[in-house]
Amino acid sequence: MALVDDLAEQTVLEEILEETKPPVPAECRELHYLLYTPFRYSVRQDSRFHVAGEPGVFYASLAERTALAEVAFHRLLFFTESPQTPWPENPVEFTLFSVKVSADKTIKLTRPPFDEQEALWTDTHDYAACQQLAREAREQELDAICYRSVRDSQGGDNIVLFHCRAFEEKKPSEMRNWHLRFSTHGIMALREHTADRLQFTRDDFANDPRIASLNWER
Fold first, then answer.
1. Residue 44: is its pLDDT beyond 90?
2. How many domains does one find in the chain?
């Protein structure tokens, strides 16, 4: 909005920007942008069930705490790569949203027979086995993979979706704002306008060697 004088000009600018973006997949076009955006882009960085250059996927958690743990961990990764960057002076705000999913063709890595290879699926930084499983899941036209979070010390579960068809709703059903404060002692998470709060200690993420070497004294 700092580049324009009124809403009409902003609309034109938004339309110009939209033309530069990859097209929204046909099966996703009726969805809210928060739901279709992960499928719209092929991220240039590998993740547990995604290889750079391949079609995008949608990651989610089955519980709020697990989602916050995942967010906190990936923020910490930034600070491992920038050791001279101080902790933010103010809490960082994130919006968590909920959406109903119906994925009939789903692999659950926490159940037999996949749980017999739990060490492969829960490696903290080597994602090769998970990425290969994701390729095979796509070839079989599966909808999703459910797996245990290695970032949530309480063992919450995550899900990765491969297709927009897994969404039962066209838009998020609930949104909640959380504030994360990073400090020498760990991360505090406080939900806006409520007394809900969580604490993630330095030890909660120390099982990952990248975080184990993090300089918390900033």
1. no
2. 1
